[in-house]
Amino acid sequence: MTLDKIDLTILRLMQENSRISNIHIAKELNMAPSAVLERVKKLEQKNVITQYSAKINPNAVDLKLLAFISMKSSQSLGCTTTADELAKIKEVQEVHVIAGDDCFLVKVRTADSASLMELMRSSFSKIPNILSIKTTIVLETVKEDQSLNIPEL
Amino acid sequence: MTLDKIDLTILRLMQENSRISNIHIAKELNMAPSAVLERVKKLEQKNVITQYSAKINPNAVDLKLLAFISMKSSQSLGCTTTADELAKIKEVQEVHVIAGDDCFLVKVRTADSASLMELMRSSFSKIPNILSIKTTIVLETVKEDQSLNIPEL
DNA sequence: ATATAAAAAGAATTATATTCATATTATTTA
DNA sequence: TAAATAATATGAATATAATTCTTTTTATAT
C-alpha cells in the first residue's frame, strides 16, 4: 500500500492519541470527516494500523506478575530444588513446573515495578542455574483456585 | 489508587481495543455508560491509563529511518572516515555528524524492516568503531531540505 | 480528449458521548 | 447499630460524533 502525506498525518495523530475524533483529524487536514473515516478504514483493512491500545501505568496496578523462568538445559530435568528455592520467597504466590522452553511459571505479587526489580535482583539472582526470566502483568484473573480462601462463618 | 474488578475489566478491554465504545464496555459489565465514562475519566486523571495509541505495522510504511550511531569514544573525534563509509551505502540518504553521545544521524530508506535488518547486519557491521545504533521510524516529514529536488520545467 | 476509477464533499441518519438530577450503595463516625 | 456522609450508579435529555449515501471533484488510464 502506498501511503501519502494525508495517511502519514493520520497515522501520526492516531499514534499520539488513538481516541482522537474523525472531526479533529479532518480539521487538522482540512477535509471532510467522511473522507478521513474512509482512509482510516482502509488503513485498518490493509493492516497498516494493527491495533488500538491503551497504555497502562504498571505502577498503578497492584502488580500480580507471572514470571516464566527457564534453566540451563543440563539442569532442567531435576528442577525440584530450584522450585523449592522459588517457593521460599515471600512475594512468590505460586510456583508451577511447566513443559516447554521455560521450566517454571511463578506468580509474584509486589507493590510496584521497582520492588519487582529489586526482587529479581536480590532473590531470583541468588538461585543457581536460572537462564532467563520473562515477566508479564496480570490485569485480571477470571478464574482462580480459591482453595486457600477459607470463608468466614 | 485502588483498582477493583470493574476497573481491571475496563483496562483489559481498552488495552485490547482502545477505540471500544463506552456502551460496549457498559454492556460487558452490565452497567450504565455514564458510570463507565466516569471510571475511565478517573483512570485517565490518576494516570493509570497513560496513553491511547494506534499500533502501526512498520512494514506497511515505506520505511524512512533515522539511525543514531555512536562510536567508541577514543575514535569519536576523527569521525570523517566513518561518515564517508556510511555515505557510500546506497540506502543511506543523509549523514549528519552530530554533537552529544551519538556521533551521527543517518537517514535510511528501505522497503521493509527485514531489509533494514539485513542492511544493519551486512553494511553497518563492516564499518569499524561503531559502538551502537538506535533506529526510529520517520512517520512524517513536516519540513525537508529539497535543494536536490530540481523541479521539471 | 474521453472514459473509468478513486477519492472527497456534504447532507441526512444513526449511534455514541456527555451532562445532570436523582437514586442507590458503601463508608464513616457518633 | 443507626444516622450522616461520601462515593458511585442510574436514567433521561442533550450535545457531539460516526456512519451512510448520493453527488461532485479529482486523478488515472485509454
Fold blueprint:
The structure is a homodimer of 153-residue chains.
Chain A: H1 5-16, H2 22-29, H3 33-45, E1 49-56, E2 64-71, H4 80-88, E3 92-97, E4 104-109, H5 113-122, E5 130-137
Antiparallel strand pairs in A: 2-4, 2-5, 3-4
Helix pairs in contact in A: 2-3
The first copy, chain A, binds a DNA duplex (30 and 30 nucleotides) through helix 3.
GO cellular component, one term (chains A, B): cytosol
Organism (chains A, B): Pedobacter planticolens
GO molecular function, one term (chains A, B): sequence-specific DNA binding
User: Number of helical segments of chain A?
Assistant: 5
Strand order, main sheet of chain A: write it out.
3-4-2-5
Q: For the record, give the distance between the C-alpha atoms at the N and C termini of chain A, rounded to a whole number.
A: 65 Å
Stretches of chain A where pLDDT is under 50 for at least 5 consecutive residues are: 144-153
Q: How many runs of DSSP E, i.e. beta strands of chain A?
A: 5
- Determine Rg of chain A (CA atoms, Å): 23 Å
The fraction of residues in strands of chain A falls at 15-25%
CATH homologous group name of the largest domain in chain A:
Lrp/AsnC effector binding domain/regulation of amino acid metabolism (RAM) domain
CATH class of the largest domain in chain A: Alpha Beta
Q: How many domain regions of chain A?
A: 2
- The shape of chain A, in one word, is elongated
Helicity of chain A, in percent? 25-40%
InterPro entries (chains A, B): ArsR-like_HTH, AsnC-type_HTH_dom, Dimeric_a/b-barrel, Tscrpt_reg_AsnC-like, Tscrpt_reg_AsnC/Lrp_C, WH-like_DNA-bd_sf, WH_DNA-bd_sf
Keywords (chains A, B): DNA-binding, Transcription, Transcription regulation
GO molecular function (chains A, B): sequence-specific DNA binding
Organism (chains A, B): Pedobacter planticolens
